[in-house]
Amino acid sequence: MRTQRQVVDYSLQKRAVLRELLAGRVGTYDVCDASPYLKNAARFHGEPTDRRCPICRSENLTLVHYIYGDELKQSAGQARTLAELPVLAMTLSEFQVFVVEVCLGCDWNHLVEQYLLGRDGLTGDGDVAGEQDVAGTGGVGRRRREAQR
Ligand SMILES: [Zn+2]
């Protein structure tokens, strides 16, 4: 069951940052500043992609999914693997997911998108289409129509 909703896409902001970088208005040290925490999260909970880092072009990007919400209690702010999200979505009524892309080569990192997951999405206004993948597996850039809500 799919509960993803209120998707906010940050690809425009990312393109803007990359443009600034190309134009020399910001330096790579400004944008390649992944913290040790973020890099650990990428190593242990990250979702590998086949997309090349836009900065160093030698490593593939890793997606890290951070979860926030009152129901998560002490787990709020932690990273979770993509596989764990559907389970949480069936357990909790609502929580926020922030997806960050990270390059473990050059420390580039940027927010990719955010969205809500959780059972509250199941009782909505008929937008539950019976799709199977809750978290949009590998799903950055896919099926933008969720953003309509
Ligand atoms: Zn890189």
Which features characterize this protein?
149 residues; alpha+beta; 6-stranded antiparallel sheet; 6 strands; 26% strand; elongated; binds zinc ion; DUF5318 domain-containing protein; DUF5318
Structural features, described:
This is DUF5318 domain-containing protein. Residues 127-149 are annotated as: Disordered. The protein has 149 residues and is an alpha+beta fold. Helices cover 23% and strands 26% of the residues. It is built from four helices and six strands; from the N terminus they run E-H-H-H-E-E-E-H-E-E. The protein has helices spanning 11-22, 28-31, 36-45, 84-91; strands at residues 5-9, 47-52, 60-68, 79-80, 95-102, 109-117. Strands 1, 2, 3, 4, 5 and 6 form a six-stranded antiparallel β-sheet that branches. A hairpin with a 7-residue loop joins strand 2 (47-52) and strand 3 (60-68). The radius of gyration is 16 Å and the shape is elongated. Mean pLDDT is 87; it is low at 136-145. It binds zinc ion.
